[in-house]
Write a structure and sequence with these properties.
three-stranded antiparallel beta sheet; 10 helices; alpha/beta; eight-stranded mixed beta sheet; disordered N terminus
Length: 245
């Protein structure tokens, strides 16, 4: 079986390319009715290299390249099976990009979107999934795994890199340890009152939300201050933050 990976369809403004993989078995051509992946990256060389590399490592799909989501909207025939967005070293906290992504996912709910990024910050990963993406791929993984991740997302699954899962596991362990220490120090009611205090709620509101008397809330606050050796509510908040950060 031989594989040809030509590029064609160049548009003068450099906004759109197309890389197609054609597979031949002997002299008989395989059906060209194969899924199509859109790759979005504002760096021309990076998006071309990524497309060629994915195809060379077994991505059995047609690939079209675009420099932005806006370009995809304007020039795409909307017949893609999925979109891979390579944000490189950029972070996921650009509000304009996030809003554009959410609009896209809302407009095309059945179109899987996968993010490829160097940043492994868990906050960024969680925000990506909150926006509705089907996969978050770390650029630290190999191309073969990347191909598998894309295929999984386009088949309806969800992918997150093992490195990110390890980070998430560590975060959960820290959270569990924090909760254990907090439980050992405070009763559940005291913990509830602390949560309310950190949100700046007055005693009357705390009492209403926890179905307690205001006098009971004051007793809990006094007990909390005693355990923390705090002199006032503000100091309680700072000490809780410092102890359980």
């Amino acid at each position: 079986m031989s594989t040809a990976v030509p590029t064609y369809g160049y548009v003068p403004n450099g906004s759109r390319y197309r890389a197609v993989v054609n597979s031949m078995r002997g002299s008989e051509a395989v059906s060209h009715d194969i899924p199509k992946l859109a790759i979005i990256d504002d760096r021309a060389l990076d998006r071309e290299c990524l497309a060629q590399s994915l195809i060379a490592h077994g991505l059995g799909m047609d690939v079209e390249l675009f420099e932005s989501l806006d370009t995809w909207r304007k020039t795409s025939d909307s017949k893609h099976s999925g979109i891979l967005i390579n944000i490189g070293r950029s972070d996921f906290f650009n509000e304009t990009f996030i809003n554009d992504l959410k609009d896209l996912i809302s407009e095309f709910p059945g179109l899987p979107v996968v993010i490829l990024a160097e940043n492994r910050d868990l906050r960024q990963i969680l925000r990506a999934f909150e926006a509705g993406v089907r996969g978050y791929i770390s650029s630290a993984i190999g191309l073969t795994v990347c191909v598998g991740a894309i295929s999984l997302a386009l088949a309806g699954g969800t992918f997150i890199s093992a490195e990110n899962l390890n980070d998430l596991r560590q975060l959960l362990l820290v959270a569990e340890d924090k909760e254990r220490r907090r439980t050992a120090m405070f009763t559940q009611r005291e913990a509830d009152v602390i949560d309310a205090l950190t949100r700046g709620k007055p005693n009357k509101i705390i009492a209403y939300e926890l179905n307690l008397r205001e006098s009971t809330v004051k007793v809990h606050i006094r007990n909390i201050m005693k355990k923390l050796h705090a002199r006032n509510r503000t100091e309680v908040i700072f000490k809780v933050s410092d102890i359980f950060k």
